[in-house]
Amino acid sequence: MEKIKKNPSKLNFSNPSFGYNKVEVSPKRKINSFDLLGNIAVVKFPREFSERKKKIFAKNLLNEVKAIKTVIEKVGKIKGRLRKFDFKHLAGEKTSEVLYKENNCVFRFNLGTSYFSSRLSNERKEIALNIEKDNNVLVMFAGVGPYSIVIAKNSPAKKVFSNEINREANKYFKLNMELNKVKDKIEFLPGDIKKIALKMKESKIKFDVIVMPRPQLKDSFLKEAFMLSMKGTKIFYYAFCGMDEISLVIEKIKQEAKNNKRKIKINQWKKAGEIAPYKIRLRVDFIVI
């Protein structure tokens, strides 16, 4: 993509297949949050951007990238356990429903009611490649099903149990199971994971792999993960932190394991994307021993 140094209305996008890009709009300021989901472009503008400049940018984006049919502005931060964000239509078709493809899967969802990040496409693929034959997998905070469905369709897992509390997301999750023809491989578990974990504990249900792409909340939900783990269970745990806070997250995991009378081994940690200046999405891979 060409960098625009003087006039933000003259855009030249050379690669319409991007999922995330940066466009320089002045020597000092950048549009630093740009997602392409299906035919919808989601843009986060610098604070000083006027409504006129936003409209110009959006209209030129439609003209330059034919795959884009709608441009919306992300307003504010993703909020709460349901992970919703406010947005404003800028140009093109007035819709917030997306049809998105990745990892040999297709997903339909509504940006106004369900969280989805295209930036985690490689994460989902990487975790699917870590699933072994006949593994029973639990995905917490599953949303419209990206982790669950990518794993079900691209791994030799025996069964993928999928949990989400957002009712609107669950409606799309059911649809996405049908679209990807994985209904026979996924166990749908809607509702509060805390209550569901207690019921599964009573039934002595344990998992080989637990995936936790959790929202940015104070509760780690590790208590529930340890409740449903056994010796050899692999856990993929996501957290949000500053680069200087990584060791604190790892120590917290170790402490929660100790509190729940579990021994663990940290296999690795990795940066799974930036979410703000100096703040990252961290993934910690560990195993119960």
Explain what the structure shows.
It is a single chain. The protein has 289 residues and is of the alpha/beta class. Helices cover 26% and strands 33% of the residues. The protein contains seven helices and 15 strands. α2 crosses α3 (146-154). The termini are far apart.
- Number of β-strand runs: 15
Q: What fold name goes in the CATH topology slot of the largest domain?
A: Rossmann fold
Helix content: 25-40%
Mean pLDDT: 86
What is the overall shape? Answer: globular
List unreliable stretches of 5+ residues: 1-29
**What is the rounded Rg?**
20 Å
Terminal CA distance reads 47 Å
Name the CATH superfamily assignment of the largest domain. Vaccinia Virus protein VP39
N to C succession of SSEs:
EEEEHEEEEHEHEHEHEHEHEE
* Known CATH architecture of the largest domain: 3-Layer(aba) Sandwich
Widest beta sheet: strand line-up:
11-10-9-12-13-15-14
Classification by helices and strands = alpha/beta
Chart the SSEs and their pairings.
Layout: E1 23-24, E2 30-31, E3 33-37, E4 40-44, H1 51-64, E5 70-79, E6 84-92, E7 97-102, E8 105-110, H2 121-129, E9 136-139, H3 146-154, E10 159-164, H4 167-179, E11 186-190, H5 193-202, E12 209-212, H6 222-227, E13 234-242, H7 246-259, E14 264-276, E15 279-288
Parallel strand pairs: 4-5, 9-10, 9-12, 10-11, 12-13
Antiparallel strand pairs: 1-2, 3-4, 5-6, 7-8, 13-15, 14-15
Short overview:
With 289 residues, the protein is of the alpha/beta class. Helices cover 26% and strands 33% of the residues.
